[in-house]
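Risk register update: the risk of archive-format incompatibility is retired. Evidence:
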Amino acid sequence: MNILLLGNGGREHTFAWKIKQSPLCGKLFIAPGNAGTQLEGTNLDIAVDDFDGIRKAVLEHNIKLVVVGPELPLVKGIYDYFEKDEALANVTVFGPSKEAARLEGSKAYAKEFMEEFGIPTAAYAEFTPETVEEGVAYIAAQPTPIVLKADGLAAGKGVLIIDDISEAQAALREMLDGKFGEASSKVVIEAFLDGIEFSVFAITDGRDYKILPVAKDYKRIGEGDTGLNTGGMGAVSPPSFVDGVLMHKVEEKIIKPTIEGLQSRNLTYHGVVFFGLIKVNDEPYVIEYNCRMGDPETEVVFPRFRCDLVELMLATKQGRLKEVETVISDRFATTVFLVSGGYPGSYEKGKLISGLEQVHGSLIFHAGTKLDGNDVVTNGGRVIAITSYGNTMEQALEKSYENASLIDFQFKNYRRDIGFDLK
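Archived output:
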């Protein structure tokens, strides 16, 4: 069957690589894609939230499965758009409905959901411009640090962790005054949880689920987890501290109640639930839900997933997910991101990338790249993910770093300590 994949990052190149391994995959199209996805299929110059353009491409290319990579089209309701169109009735969309995608699209909605179904998470309160003074008073009564979250999607910039009460109060006023636009028209204030974070993913049809390999990503730009937050500088799978005992708690206290909550609220969910978790004193808590795969976690999760991903995605719509067997590799997978100098601040694009053909023993996933004639050039902050396997995490990282030294572009930067806290 012909498949359309939406997105243009490292996550989508990894999706494309995995989808192409399925005997069910005919022609693969990626919208808009990057220089790497073009190696797996055909890029289409369509924005991920151009639903009419996507509809036209689906009909023109006889697409039977639409795989949604990023959150924006899901939160905007692409699933519902397809469901309401008779001409698209035989097309499967891998992703949740607009209402279910509010688990990612609204922090307040997610917190209310967790509270209703007894899912462990940080204590919180929510405030709007009309209740800003109540919020200021609330902050004054809280221990520090204090976590402030814009309710809506804010391109990964809407979470602030602040150590000073007066700074937090000023930040709340700024956020409710439009610092993040519509996204911060409501702000969730949370208690700070001190622990170690990890990512768990489950493919679900809203009733049954299959757990994917567990991962841990590294978001800070600087070594030792210092400096500004990024989209992710690297990831490892599996993280050594996530053992069978912890995963049993995750499944019983978080995954099962979440799926039961989807059923209780009658929410349509044929896709991935991403549980952003933190381990605090041997207990798992939910920091956030996402309604799609993570990036850079996808670059280590899918390489360890020894199953037909297309079959699984189709099974979510057909209600037969329970019947599909899943197999996970025992090997470790690590990914190291090469990023543009200056990222996550301002950076230059269009820098020639060399050395890709010298890489051996690693998987290369493109993120911020594009073709300029026959040349591959930088086109974003996070440029290339280098994923490697190993019998140990250290072995996999050694291979990733060996190949990171072979790929070059002007102002290249990368962290040299991925997995430092797991050794």
